[in-house]
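Project standup — Tuesday

K.O.: blocked on the structure for the chain from last sprint. Re-posting the sequence here as requested.
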Amino acid sequence: MIEIDSELLDRITKELEGITNGIKSVVSGAANRAALEAKKDVVNRIIDEFYIDKKPINASITIKRANKSNTVAQVKNNRKQDTFTLKRFKVDIPSNGPIKVAQSRSGGIKELKRAFVNAPKNQPGNLQVFRRDGKKRNPISLQRGYSTGGMLETNNVIDFIEDLIQEKLENNLEKEVDKFFEK
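H.V.: unblocked you, prediction finished:
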């Protein structure tokens, strides 16, 4: 939960006293700016922790902007249950031996036994990792890795996010008050 310091809020209230919708405008602007900065920092933190590109992570996190009637900005994860296939992570295909996959940078490389790769000739770069479920040839299952929600919950990323947003919100409130008076 992100809270605004009472001293800072009292000072802003005194500066904007008598101005209609002044406080709501300043708080919603600060919340929107803090949410945008937090999304950028969270995506960068996930990229630092995992072998995954920025594009799918950035697309899976959205922002619900604050306005004057609702002064709360939300950073949402759209893919809590959807997991990314292993083609998004680091896959090592040796000439002989099992396929090796690395998802997190701290987790190391893990072997997948009874796994194989399907790389269609007409779709270069579309590498899919499958695993046989039984002793027979079929059935097979597509192998998946972390979801965005799973990546957010590892390695204290949530604590990092809350501390970051709190700091950014306090800095942005002061900037928004100055910006409000420049208009």
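K.O.: great, moving the ticket to review. The longest strand covers residues 128-132. Residues 122 and 128 are 14 Å apart (CA to CA).
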